Amino acid sequence: MSETSRSQAHLHQDPTGAAAAPVGARSTGVRRTAVGVSELVQSALPLIAAWLPGQRWYAGKGRAITGLTPLVGTPLQVGDPALLHLLLRVEYAGDDSPGEIYQLMLGIRSQHSSGLPPTAVLGRLSGGQHDGAALYDAVHDPELTGRLLEHLATGDRFGALSFRRTPGPGLPAHLPGRASTAEQSNSSVIYGTEFILKLFRRISPGTNPDLELSLALSRAGSTRIPRVAAWFESRMEGAEPATLGLLQRYLPDAEDGWELALDQVGRLKGDPSPGNFAIEAHRLGRATAEVHRALARSMPVARLDRAQTSLLAAGMADRLDRAVTAVPGLARYRSALRAAFRALTADHLDGLPVQRIHGDLHLGQAMRTPHGWVLLDFEGEPAKPLAERRLPQPALRDVAAMLRSFDYAAAHLLAGTPADPELAHLAAAWAGRNRTAYCAGYTAGGGMDPGSAPELMRALEIDKAVYEVVYEARHRPSWLPIPLAAINRLSLTV
After folding, report:
1. What pTM was computed for the model?
2. From CA 147, how far away is CA 279, in angstroms rounded?
3. pLDDT digits (tens, 9 = 90+) for 336-383
4. What is the CATH number of the domain that holds 167?
5. Nearest Cα to 411, choosing from 319, 331, 489?
6. Is 403 in the same domain as 469?
7. 150 is a domain residue
8. Beta pairing class for 255-256 and 366-369
């Protein structure tokens, strides 16, 4: 029996009737029964198993699915179309871990909707009351995403699933939602020009840092983030509630920092002085420092002693070792990179301050608005466990991550072109100017001067580049030379 056949056999043997959580009654008096949900999920599982690996946000690429276990199934709209919310555990071949939990919003229509992108369609259901109906990703259905907004506006509760609002003006309850086309590890729905809903796809029990830090910054009066309007969560058996979605103010007049940078870089081919993006880099550095200062006022801060700093360095070394296993081409740099991590134990780094930070800062997480730079997506690196993403870190980790982003933007100038030393020099000079300007802005905004801690900055930038090497090798192999070039450069400075 092939791996695919074994997977499908396992799916049909799952006791999905028992696994699907009962759904309680709503105040309307309409009862949602577990039986109907169970039958629907049973019919949908084979379609889900075939569809999941093709999704941008799916983290299990390259691994064979051996089991799908429904954890909570909640009908959010009945009739035609219907909307089913599903939390699903995915298990993999050769993996002893409990697997990964994913959030799905499934639409069901008797007739296929012509407006759906091909990647949103799972197929046709067979058997039961929905026999022959089209099953699809409801994120792309404006009617059903509008229903989600209604639940957020009224603070509904469906058994384990709760919708919650922040204090303030009421939410509009009748706006259709359109799916964002941005490539990302979650899914976003935009409601008119007012709100954007982020749906977390990979779910872990506990409060997502994006909600936790956005609420903390809102309460601190920060204007450097979009205001939180609502969120929803689900309680899974034996675990604290998991954040499922976050509704924030939309920024219709904002410009994406990554696109702005690429525009400037692209003009270098025709004009070595296309504009001074360094001014914006300086302003972005100040905005980053303001966010760090607000987080330090709102949440616990600490200082690492010598032993704790050694643990920080050891964690970087462990990530490097795992990365070498995944990408053997890193092995030639391991000795030099480990030396950079050991340098963190120097006497003058004793007492290193740590706090809550963004955790995955780059140009694509920054938006330039008419009122200044705004930072988005405080989720942290999605590949890391949630508990690790919620730990205090050196604030300069965010600075190092943004420096890597300037390098990425500059590398686009060289993509798809023959080797050109002059062009390579222009790209390196552009990245250098903006790295320097960003650090200067960060210092001017009250952040720790990156130049005062060269060993720490080097180690943090290496750690980020190591993460990028593994990510690119798995998801975008054509981009792998970008972080490898940084690894090579940084290894020569040790």
Report:
1. 0.85
2. 43
3. 999 999 999 877 778 999 999 999 999 999 999 999 999 999 999 887
4. 3.30.200
5. 489
6. yes
7. no
8. antiparallel
Q: What is the DSSP letter of 393?
A: B
Contact in structure between 81 and 108 (CB atoms under 8 Å): yes
Residue 382 within a domain: yes
Same-domain check for residues 127 and 165: no
Report the distance separating Cα 494 and Cα 317, nearest Å.
15
Widest distance between CA atoms in the chain: 71
Distance CA 20, CA 236 (A): 11
Residue 378 lies in a domain: yes
Residues in the chain with pLDDT values less than 50: 1-35
In degrees rounded to 5, what are phi and psi of residue 25?
A: -85, 145
pLDDT of residue 17: 32
Cα 483 to the center of its chain, rounded Å: 19
**The token pair that represents 298 in the structure block:** 């709102």
462 touches 323 (CB < 8 A): no
* 3-class SS of residue 452: helix
The predicted-structure confidence for 115-151, as pLDDT tens digits, reads as follows 889 899 999 999 888 899 999 999 999 999 999 999 9
| Residue 168 domain boundaries | 157-249
Q: Quick one: 361 and 469 in the same domain?
A: yes
Angle at 40 between CA 35 and CA 42, to 5 degrees: 95
Burial 155-187 (b: 16+ CB within 10 A, else e): ebebbbbbbebbeeeebeeebbbebbeeeebbb
**Number of domains composing the chain:** 3
Say which residue the tokens 């590890």 belong to.
Answer: 185
The verdict on residue 191 lying in a domain is yes
* pLDDT the model gives residue 3: 34
116-151 as b/e, with b when 16 or more CB fall inside 10 Å? beeebbbeebeeeebeebbbbbbbbbbebbbbbbbb
Tokens of 466: 């190591």
